[in-house]
Amino acid sequence: MVRTGLRRDIGARLFDQWLRQLALGDFCAPTGTLELTAPSDFAANFVASNYGARLSLAWRSQNAGVSAVRVVRRVGAARTLALTPSAGQAGAESGTRTQSDEGMAAAPSLAPATTAAIPADGFRPRHDFAAFVADESNRLAFSASQGLAAVTQPMFNPLFIHGGTGQGKTHLLHAIAGAFLEHSPNQSVLYMSAERFMVEFVGAIRANDTMAFKARLRAARLLLIDDIQFIAGKGPTQEEFLHTINDLIDSGARIAIAADRAPQAIEGVDKRILSRLAGGLVADIQPAGLELRLAILRARRASTGTTAVGDEVIDLLARSIRSNIRELEGAFNKLIAYSQLMGRAVTIEMAQTVLADSLRANARRITIDEIQRACAAHYRIDTSEMRSARRARAVARPRQVAMYLAKKLTPRSLPEIGRIFGGRDHSTVIHAVRTIEALRKENADIDQDIRTLQSQLEG
Fold first, then answer.
1. Which CATH number fits domain 120-285: 3.30.70.1710, 3.90.180.10, 3.40.120.10, 3.40.50.300?
2. Can you name the CATH fold of 368-458?
3. Could you give the 3-state DSSP secondary structure of residue 202?
4. Element (H, E) at 52
Protein backbone atom coordinates (compact mmCIF):
# COMPACT_ATOMS: atom_id res chain seq x y z
CA MET A 1 0.00 0.00 0.00
CA VAL A 2 2.81 2.43 0.87
CA ARG A 3 4.51 1.59 -2.36
CA THR A 4 1.37 2.05 -4.46
CA GLY A 5 0.51 5.37 -2.82
CA LEU A 6 3.98 6.84 -3.30
CA ARG A 7 4.08 5.77 -6.92
CA ARG A 8 0.73 7.46 -7.51
CA ASP A 9 1.66 10.64 -5.61
CA ILE A 10 5.06 11.42 -7.10
CA GLY A 11 4.67 9.75 -10.47
CA ALA A 12 5.99 6.49 -11.86
CA ARG A 13 9.14 7.99 -13.36
CA LEU A 14 10.44 9.65 -10.19
CA PHE A 15 9.37 6.69 -8.09
CA ASP A 16 11.26 4.25 -10.29
CA GLN A 17 14.31 6.51 -10.38
CA TRP A 18 14.64 7.27 -6.67
CA LEU A 19 12.32 5.26 -4.40
CA ARG A 20 12.21 1.85 -6.05
CA GLN A 21 15.83 1.32 -5.00
CA LEU A 22 14.97 1.54 -1.27
CA ALA A 23 14.76 -1.54 0.92
CA LEU A 24 13.32 -2.08 4.40
CA GLY A 25 15.87 -1.79 7.20
CA ASP A 26 15.65 -1.96 10.99
CA PHE A 27 12.62 -0.79 12.97
CA CYS A 28 13.00 0.70 16.45
CA ALA A 29 9.71 0.02 18.25
CA PRO A 30 10.32 2.32 21.27
CA THR A 31 10.87 5.36 19.06
CA GLY A 32 8.76 4.23 16.10
CA THR A 33 11.68 4.91 13.73
CA LEU A 34 11.85 2.87 10.51
CA GLU A 35 15.07 2.67 8.53
CA LEU A 36 14.93 2.54 4.75
CA THR A 37 18.22 1.66 3.11
CA ALA A 38 19.67 3.02 -0.13
CA PRO A 39 22.60 1.66 -2.16
CA SER A 40 24.88 4.68 -1.60
CA ASP A 41 25.43 7.76 0.53
CA PHE A 42 24.43 10.00 -2.35
CA ALA A 43 21.15 8.16 -2.93
CA ALA A 44 20.35 8.18 0.80
CA ASN A 45 21.05 11.91 1.12
CA PHE A 46 19.10 12.78 -2.00
CA VAL A 47 16.02 10.74 -0.99
CA ALA A 48 16.11 12.03 2.58
CA SER A 49 16.34 15.66 1.40
CA ASN A 50 13.69 15.46 -1.31
CA TYR A 51 11.29 12.74 -0.17
CA GLY A 52 11.94 12.27 3.56
CA ALA A 53 8.80 14.06 4.76
CA ARG A 54 6.63 12.32 2.15
CA LEU A 55 7.99 8.90 3.18
CA SER A 56 7.28 9.58 6.86
CA LEU A 57 3.75 10.72 6.07
CA ALA A 58 3.12 7.66 3.89
CA TRP A 59 4.14 5.23 6.62
CA ARG A 60 2.30 7.09 9.40
CA SER A 61 -0.87 7.08 7.32
CA GLN A 62 -0.80 3.27 7.30
CA ASN A 63 -1.01 3.14 11.13
CA ALA A 64 1.93 0.74 11.15
CA GLY A 65 3.43 2.14 14.35
CA VAL A 66 5.89 4.21 12.36
CA SER A 67 6.32 7.79 13.54
CA ALA A 68 9.50 8.65 11.63
CA VAL A 69 11.48 7.38 8.66
CA ARG A 70 15.25 7.49 8.39
CA VAL A 71 17.07 6.87 5.09
CA VAL A 72 20.60 5.44 5.39
CA ARG A 73 23.12 3.68 3.20
CA ARG A 74 22.60 -0.06 3.09
CA VAL A 75 25.02 -2.06 5.25
CA GLY A 76 27.52 -3.78 2.99
CA ALA A 77 26.38 -1.71 0.02
CA ALA A 78 28.81 -1.19 -2.81
CA ARG A 79 31.16 1.71 -2.68
CA THR A 80 29.68 4.58 -4.64
CA LEU A 81 30.79 3.99 -8.20
CA ALA A 82 28.21 4.87 -10.81
CA LEU A 83 29.43 3.09 -13.91
CA THR A 84 27.47 3.77 -17.04
CA PRO A 85 28.06 0.88 -19.44
CA SER A 86 28.20 1.00 -23.17
CA ALA A 87 25.17 -0.19 -25.06
CA GLY A 88 26.64 -3.68 -25.33
CA GLN A 89 27.53 -3.83 -21.66
CA ALA A 90 24.13 -2.53 -20.65
CA GLY A 91 22.44 -5.25 -22.61
CA ALA A 92 24.65 -7.93 -21.09
CA GLU A 93 24.11 -6.69 -17.56
CA SER A 94 20.38 -6.12 -17.81
CA GLY A 95 19.76 -9.84 -17.56
CA THR A 96 21.37 -9.96 -14.12
CA ARG A 97 19.24 -7.23 -12.55
CA THR A 98 16.07 -8.07 -10.69
CA GLN A 99 13.39 -5.93 -9.18
CA SER A 100 11.26 -6.94 -6.24
CA ASP A 101 7.69 -5.82 -5.72
CA GLU A 102 7.74 -6.83 -2.07
CA GLY A 103 7.92 -3.97 0.42
CA MET A 104 10.26 -1.27 -0.87
CA ALA A 105 13.06 -3.54 -2.13
CA ALA A 106 14.36 -3.23 -5.66
CA ALA A 107 17.48 -3.27 -7.79
CA PRO A 108 19.80 -0.42 -6.78
CA SER A 109 20.12 2.29 -9.40
CA LEU A 110 21.05 5.95 -9.04
CA ALA A 111 20.29 6.86 -12.60
CA PRO A 112 17.95 5.90 -15.42
CA ALA A 113 17.70 2.23 -16.30
CA THR A 114 20.92 2.25 -18.30
CA THR A 115 23.11 3.23 -15.33
CA ALA A 116 24.04 0.73 -12.63
CA ALA A 117 25.80 1.15 -9.32
CA ILE A 118 28.79 -1.18 -9.51
CA PRO A 119 31.36 -1.78 -6.78
CA ALA A 120 35.04 -1.12 -7.38
CA ASP A 121 35.73 -4.84 -7.50
CA GLY A 122 33.20 -5.05 -10.32
CA PHE A 123 35.84 -3.68 -12.69
CA ARG A 124 37.32 -6.06 -15.18
CA PRO A 125 39.97 -7.81 -13.05
CA ARG A 126 42.86 -6.96 -15.34
CA HIS A 127 42.02 -3.28 -15.72
CA ASP A 128 44.24 -1.95 -12.97
CA PHE A 129 47.63 -0.27 -12.93
CA ALA A 130 49.46 -3.51 -12.15
CA ALA A 131 48.20 -5.08 -15.38
CA PHE A 132 49.04 -2.09 -17.58
CA VAL A 133 52.29 -2.69 -19.48
CA ALA A 134 54.09 0.62 -19.92
CA ASP A 135 56.93 1.77 -22.12
CA GLU A 136 57.95 5.04 -23.74
CA SER A 137 54.86 5.06 -25.98
CA ASN A 138 52.44 5.35 -23.04
CA ARG A 139 54.52 6.16 -19.97
CA LEU A 140 53.35 9.77 -19.57
CA ALA A 141 49.69 8.76 -19.67
CA PHE A 142 50.38 5.90 -17.25
CA SER A 143 52.27 8.04 -14.72
CA ALA A 144 49.76 10.89 -14.95
CA SER A 145 46.89 8.45 -14.34
CA GLN A 146 48.61 7.14 -11.22
CA GLY A 147 49.06 10.72 -10.04
CA LEU A 148 45.39 11.54 -10.56
CA ALA A 149 44.35 8.51 -8.51
CA ALA A 150 46.83 9.07 -5.67
CA VAL A 151 45.91 9.94 -2.08
CA THR A 152 47.41 13.40 -2.39
CA GLN A 153 45.78 16.05 -4.52
CA PRO A 154 47.01 15.68 -8.12
CA MET A 155 49.44 18.15 -9.60
CA PHE A 156 47.46 18.31 -12.85
CA ASN A 157 43.67 18.34 -13.18
CA PRO A 158 41.91 17.57 -15.47
CA LEU A 159 43.86 14.78 -17.16
CA PHE A 160 43.25 14.37 -20.90
CA ILE A 161 44.40 11.05 -22.42
CA HIS A 162 44.30 10.60 -26.19
CA GLY A 163 45.32 7.81 -28.52
CA GLY A 164 44.04 5.43 -31.16
CA THR A 165 41.38 2.78 -30.67
CA GLY A 166 42.38 -0.12 -28.47
CA GLN A 167 45.60 1.41 -27.14
CA GLY A 168 44.69 1.38 -23.42
CA LYS A 169 42.77 4.60 -22.70
CA THR A 170 39.75 2.86 -21.15
CA HIS A 171 42.05 0.56 -19.20
CA LEU A 172 43.65 3.62 -17.59
CA LEU A 173 40.26 5.17 -16.75
CA HIS A 174 39.21 1.99 -14.96
CA ALA A 175 42.58 1.80 -13.22
CA ILE A 176 42.20 5.41 -11.98
CA ALA A 177 38.79 4.63 -10.51
CA GLY A 178 39.95 1.42 -8.84
CA ALA A 179 43.04 3.01 -7.29
CA PHE A 180 41.10 6.08 -6.13
CA LEU A 181 38.44 3.97 -4.40
CA GLU A 182 41.08 1.95 -2.59
CA HIS A 183 41.98 4.98 -0.48
CA SER A 184 38.60 6.78 -0.68
CA PRO A 185 35.98 3.99 -0.68
CA ASN A 186 33.11 6.27 0.30
CA GLN A 187 33.70 8.87 -2.39
CA SER A 188 31.45 9.07 -5.43
CA VAL A 189 33.05 8.05 -8.72
CA LEU A 190 31.19 8.47 -11.99
CA TYR A 191 32.29 6.84 -15.26
CA MET A 192 30.44 7.19 -18.55
CA SER A 193 31.01 7.65 -22.24
CA ALA A 194 30.38 11.05 -23.80
CA GLU A 195 27.57 9.48 -25.79
CA ARG A 196 25.87 8.29 -22.59
CA PHE A 197 26.35 11.73 -21.06
CA MET A 198 24.51 13.19 -24.04
CA VAL A 199 21.72 10.58 -24.02
CA GLU A 200 21.04 11.01 -20.30
CA PHE A 201 21.17 14.79 -20.51
CA VAL A 202 18.70 14.87 -23.40
CA GLY A 203 16.48 12.40 -21.54
CA ALA A 204 16.55 14.61 -18.45
CA ILE A 205 15.53 17.64 -20.54
CA ARG A 206 12.62 15.77 -22.07
CA ALA A 207 11.51 14.53 -18.67
CA ASN A 208 11.92 18.02 -17.18
CA ASP A 209 14.28 16.53 -14.63
CA THR A 210 17.64 18.18 -15.30
CA MET A 211 18.17 19.00 -11.63
CA ALA A 212 18.52 15.33 -10.69
CA PHE A 213 20.94 14.79 -13.58
CA LYS A 214 23.06 17.76 -12.52
CA ALA A 215 22.98 16.74 -8.86
CA ARG A 216 24.23 13.26 -9.68
CA LEU A 217 27.17 14.53 -11.74
CA ARG A 218 28.17 17.27 -9.33
CA ALA A 219 28.20 14.81 -6.44
CA ALA A 220 31.12 12.98 -8.05
CA ARG A 221 34.57 13.37 -6.53
CA LEU A 222 36.08 11.64 -9.56
CA LEU A 223 34.53 12.01 -13.00
CA LEU A 224 35.72 9.83 -15.88
CA ILE A 225 34.47 10.52 -19.40
CA ASP A 226 35.39 8.27 -22.34
CA ASP A 227 35.32 9.16 -26.06
CA ILE A 228 34.72 12.86 -25.51
CA GLN A 229 34.92 13.48 -29.29
CA PHE A 230 31.31 12.30 -29.58
CA ILE A 231 29.92 15.53 -28.12
CA ALA A 232 31.19 17.42 -31.20
CA GLY A 233 28.40 19.51 -32.70
CA LYS A 234 26.04 18.96 -29.74
CA GLY A 235 25.52 22.52 -28.51
CA PRO A 236 23.30 22.10 -25.41
CA THR A 237 25.22 18.99 -24.32
CA GLN A 238 28.51 20.85 -24.60
CA GLU A 239 27.15 23.75 -22.55
CA GLU A 240 26.09 21.40 -19.75
CA PHE A 241 29.38 19.51 -19.96
CA LEU A 242 31.31 22.78 -19.62
CA HIS A 243 29.33 23.81 -16.55
CA THR A 244 29.82 20.33 -15.05
CA ILE A 245 33.59 20.25 -15.38
CA ASN A 246 33.90 23.87 -14.22
CA ASP A 247 31.86 23.14 -11.08
CA LEU A 248 33.72 19.91 -10.35
CA ILE A 249 37.18 21.42 -10.79
CA ASP A 250 36.23 24.41 -8.64
CA SER A 251 35.02 22.04 -5.92
CA GLY A 252 38.29 20.09 -5.96
CA ALA A 253 36.96 17.01 -7.75
CA ARG A 254 39.23 15.10 -10.11
CA ILE A 255 38.50 14.64 -13.81
CA ALA A 256 39.95 12.31 -16.43
CA ILE A 257 38.93 12.53 -20.07
CA ALA A 258 39.78 10.15 -22.92
CA ALA A 259 39.55 10.79 -26.66
CA ASP A 260 40.90 9.47 -29.94
CA ARG A 261 42.78 12.71 -30.66
CA ALA A 262 44.32 15.72 -28.93
CA PRO A 263 41.97 18.52 -27.73
CA GLN A 264 43.16 20.91 -30.44
CA ALA A 265 42.36 18.33 -33.13
CA ILE A 266 38.72 17.78 -32.09
CA GLU A 267 36.49 19.75 -34.42
CA GLY A 268 33.01 20.96 -33.52
CA VAL A 269 33.68 21.30 -29.77
CA ASP A 270 33.32 24.58 -27.90
CA LYS A 271 36.71 26.29 -27.56
CA ARG A 272 36.00 26.94 -23.87
CA ILE A 273 35.76 23.18 -23.27
CA LEU A 274 38.95 22.49 -25.19
CA SER A 275 40.76 25.23 -23.31
CA ARG A 276 39.57 23.84 -19.97
CA LEU A 277 40.60 20.30 -20.86
CA ALA A 278 43.99 21.38 -22.19
CA GLY A 279 44.59 23.45 -19.05
CA GLY A 280 45.50 20.39 -17.00
CA LEU A 281 47.74 17.74 -18.54
CA VAL A 282 47.39 16.30 -22.03
CA ALA A 283 49.03 12.87 -22.35
CA ASP A 284 49.10 10.83 -25.53
CA ILE A 285 49.39 7.09 -26.09
CA GLN A 286 51.35 6.21 -29.20
CA PRO A 287 50.75 3.00 -31.18
CA ALA A 288 52.48 0.08 -29.48
CA GLY A 289 55.78 -0.93 -31.06
CA LEU A 290 56.95 -4.50 -31.44
CA GLU A 291 58.71 -4.62 -28.06
CA LEU A 292 55.62 -3.42 -26.22
CA ARG A 293 53.38 -5.86 -28.09
CA LEU A 294 55.71 -8.69 -27.13
CA ALA A 295 55.76 -7.54 -23.49
CA ILE A 296 51.95 -7.33 -23.37
CA LEU A 297 51.53 -10.85 -24.75
CA ARG A 298 54.12 -12.27 -22.35
CA ALA A 299 52.39 -10.56 -19.43
CA ARG A 300 49.05 -11.92 -20.63
CA ARG A 301 50.51 -15.41 -20.85
CA ALA A 302 51.92 -15.12 -17.34
CA SER A 303 48.62 -13.84 -15.92
CA THR A 304 46.68 -16.76 -17.39
CA GLY A 305 49.24 -19.27 -16.15
CA THR A 306 49.22 -21.04 -19.48
CA THR A 307 52.16 -22.80 -21.07
CA ALA A 308 50.25 -23.63 -24.23
CA VAL A 309 51.47 -20.58 -26.17
CA GLY A 310 55.16 -20.74 -26.97
CA ASP A 311 57.52 -17.88 -27.73
CA GLU A 312 57.34 -18.53 -31.46
CA VAL A 313 53.56 -18.02 -31.45
CA ILE A 314 53.91 -14.92 -29.26
CA ASP A 315 56.39 -13.55 -31.79
CA LEU A 316 54.01 -14.31 -34.68
CA LEU A 317 51.14 -12.46 -33.00
CA ALA A 318 53.26 -9.45 -32.03
CA ARG A 319 54.69 -9.07 -35.53
CA SER A 320 51.47 -9.75 -37.40
CA ILE A 321 48.75 -7.91 -35.42
CA ARG A 322 49.77 -4.28 -35.24
CA SER A 323 46.41 -2.48 -35.39
CA ASN A 324 45.76 -2.17 -31.65
CA ILE A 325 46.29 -3.86 -28.30
CA ARG A 326 42.66 -4.88 -27.92
CA GLU A 327 42.74 -6.92 -31.12
CA LEU A 328 46.11 -8.39 -30.17
CA GLU A 329 44.83 -9.63 -26.82
CA GLY A 330 41.64 -10.86 -28.48
CA ALA A 331 43.72 -13.00 -30.83
CA PHE A 332 45.68 -14.40 -27.89
CA ASN A 333 42.46 -15.24 -26.03
CA LYS A 334 41.04 -16.94 -29.10
CA LEU A 335 44.06 -19.22 -29.33
CA ILE A 336 43.82 -20.14 -25.65
CA ALA A 337 40.10 -20.90 -25.97
CA TYR A 338 40.61 -22.97 -29.11
CA SER A 339 43.43 -24.91 -27.49
CA GLN A 340 41.36 -25.73 -24.41
CA LEU A 341 38.17 -26.61 -26.29
CA MET A 342 39.86 -28.73 -28.93
CA GLY A 343 42.55 -30.21 -26.68
CA ARG A 344 45.29 -29.18 -29.08
CA ALA A 345 48.64 -27.51 -28.54
CA VAL A 346 49.05 -23.98 -29.93
CA THR A 347 51.46 -24.22 -32.84
CA ILE A 348 52.41 -21.75 -35.55
CA GLU A 349 50.33 -23.71 -38.05
CA MET A 350 47.30 -23.79 -35.76
CA ALA A 351 47.60 -20.04 -35.03
CA GLN A 352 47.80 -19.22 -38.73
CA THR A 353 44.66 -21.26 -39.37
CA VAL A 354 42.58 -20.05 -36.41
CA LEU A 355 43.60 -16.40 -36.85
CA ALA A 356 43.61 -16.36 -40.64
CA ASP A 357 41.14 -13.46 -40.88
CA SER A 358 43.00 -11.30 -38.36
CA LEU A 359 46.35 -12.02 -39.94
CA ARG A 360 45.05 -11.13 -43.39
CA ALA A 361 43.46 -7.90 -42.12
CA ASN A 362 46.73 -6.83 -40.53
CA ALA A 363 48.96 -7.90 -43.38
CA ARG A 364 50.71 -4.81 -44.67
CA ARG A 365 54.03 -5.44 -46.29
CA ILE A 366 56.60 -2.84 -45.31
CA THR A 367 58.86 -2.09 -48.24
CA ILE A 368 62.54 -1.25 -48.19
CA ASP A 369 61.71 1.91 -50.08
CA GLU A 370 59.48 3.00 -47.17
CA ILE A 371 62.25 2.21 -44.72
CA GLN A 372 64.80 4.21 -46.69
CA ARG A 373 62.51 7.23 -46.93
CA ALA A 374 61.62 7.08 -43.20
CA CYS A 375 65.27 6.84 -42.14
CA ALA A 376 66.35 9.61 -44.52
CA ALA A 377 63.62 11.91 -43.14
CA HIS A 378 64.46 11.03 -39.54
CA TYR A 379 68.18 11.75 -39.95
CA ARG A 380 67.60 14.64 -42.35
CA ILE A 381 69.56 13.36 -45.31
CA ASP A 382 68.55 12.86 -48.92
CA THR A 383 66.99 9.49 -49.74
CA SER A 384 69.59 8.98 -52.51
CA GLU A 385 72.28 8.71 -49.82
CA MET A 386 70.84 5.32 -48.87
CA ARG A 387 72.18 3.98 -52.17
CA SER A 388 75.29 6.16 -52.49
CA ALA A 389 78.91 5.10 -51.98
CA ARG A 390 79.60 7.82 -49.40
CA ARG A 391 81.03 6.57 -46.11
CA ALA A 392 80.78 9.74 -44.00
CA ARG A 393 79.37 8.94 -40.54
CA ALA A 394 76.39 11.29 -41.06
CA VAL A 395 75.36 9.09 -44.00
CA ALA A 396 76.73 5.67 -43.06
CA ARG A 397 74.95 5.41 -39.69
CA PRO A 398 71.44 6.17 -41.08
CA ARG A 399 72.15 3.69 -43.89
CA GLN A 400 73.07 1.00 -41.34
CA VAL A 401 69.88 1.71 -39.38
CA ALA A 402 67.87 1.34 -42.58
CA MET A 403 69.57 -1.98 -43.39
CA TYR A 404 68.89 -3.22 -39.86
CA LEU A 405 65.20 -2.34 -40.15
CA ALA A 406 65.01 -3.89 -43.62
CA LYS A 407 66.31 -7.16 -42.20
CA LYS A 408 63.96 -6.98 -39.21
CA LEU A 409 60.75 -5.81 -40.88
CA THR A 410 60.80 -7.32 -44.36
CA PRO A 411 61.08 -10.88 -45.71
CA ARG A 412 63.86 -9.85 -48.11
CA SER A 413 67.07 -11.90 -48.10
CA LEU A 414 70.43 -10.37 -47.25
CA PRO A 415 71.61 -10.31 -50.90
CA GLU A 416 68.35 -8.61 -51.95
CA ILE A 417 68.73 -5.97 -49.24
CA GLY A 418 72.33 -5.34 -50.30
CA ARG A 419 71.35 -4.86 -53.95
CA ILE A 420 68.62 -2.33 -53.04
CA PHE A 421 71.14 -0.37 -50.96
CA GLY A 422 73.29 0.48 -53.96
CA GLY A 423 74.48 -2.97 -55.01
CA ARG A 424 76.25 -3.81 -51.75
CA ASP A 425 77.37 -7.30 -50.75
CA HIS A 426 75.33 -9.34 -48.25
CA SER A 427 78.28 -9.21 -45.82
CA THR A 428 77.83 -5.43 -45.63
CA VAL A 429 74.24 -5.95 -44.54
CA ILE A 430 75.32 -8.48 -41.90
CA HIS A 431 77.89 -5.99 -40.57
CA ALA A 432 75.25 -3.23 -40.43
CA VAL A 433 72.78 -5.45 -38.55
CA ARG A 434 75.37 -6.54 -35.99
CA THR A 435 76.61 -2.97 -35.53
CA ILE A 436 73.14 -1.59 -34.82
CA GLU A 437 72.28 -4.50 -32.50
CA ALA A 438 75.39 -3.72 -30.45
CA LEU A 439 74.73 0.03 -30.45
CA ARG A 440 71.18 -0.45 -29.21
CA LYS A 441 72.51 -2.06 -26.04
CA GLU A 442 74.95 0.72 -25.24
CA ASN A 443 73.53 3.85 -26.90
CA ALA A 444 70.13 5.00 -25.69
CA ASP A 445 69.75 7.49 -28.53
CA ILE A 446 70.22 4.83 -31.20
CA ASP A 447 67.80 2.53 -29.40
CA GLN A 448 65.19 5.29 -29.24
CA ASP A 449 65.71 6.06 -32.94
CA ILE A 450 65.01 2.42 -33.81
CA ARG A 451 61.89 2.33 -31.63
CA THR A 452 60.55 5.53 -33.14
CA LEU A 453 61.20 4.46 -36.72
CA GLN A 454 59.77 1.00 -36.19
CA SER A 455 56.63 2.36 -34.56
CA GLN A 456 56.22 4.81 -37.44
CA LEU A 457 56.67 2.14 -40.09
CA GLU A 458 54.43 -0.44 -38.42
CA GLY A 459 51.74 2.14 -37.68
1. 3.40.50.300
2. Chromosomal Replication Initiator Protein Dnaa; Chain: A; (1.10.1750)
3. helix
4. helix 41-60
| Domains of the chain by residue range | 2-117, 120-285, 290-362, 368-458
CATH of 2-117, one of 3.40.50.12160, 3.30.300.180, 1.25.40.10, 1.10.150.20: 3.30.300.180
DSSP string computed for 118-158: --GGGS-TT-SGGG----TTTHHHHHHHHHHHSSSPPSS-S
Who's near 338: CB < 8 A, 6+ residues apart? Answer: 344, 346, 350, 354
What is the three-class DSSP state of 28?
A: strand
Q: Distance of CA 417 to CAs 116, 275, 411, Å?
A: 58, 49, 10
One-letter amino acid of 96: T
Please enumerate in sequence order all residues whose Cβ is within 8 A of that of 97, keeping only pairs 6 or more positions apart, or say none.
107, 116
Q: Under CATH, which number does the domain 290-362 receive? A: 1.10.8.60
Rounded Cα–Cα distance for residues 234 and 270 (Å)? 9
Tell me which of 14-28, 155-169, 430-444 is least confident: 14-28
| Band of residue 65 on the pLDDT scale cut at 50, 70, 90 | confident
Question: Residue 222: which pLDDT band, with cuts at 50, 70 and 90?
Answer: very high
| Residue type at 39 in one-letter notation | P
Q: How far is CA 386 from CA 106, 222, 371, in A?
A: 72, 53, 10
Q: Is 445 exposed, middle or buried (0-12, 13-18, 19+ CB in 10 A)?
A: exposed
- The answer, yes or no, to whether residue 257 has pLDDT greater than 70, is yes
* Burial class of 213 by CB neighbour count within 10 A (0 to 12, 13 to 18, 19+): buried
Number of CB atoms found within 10 A of residue 327's CB? 16
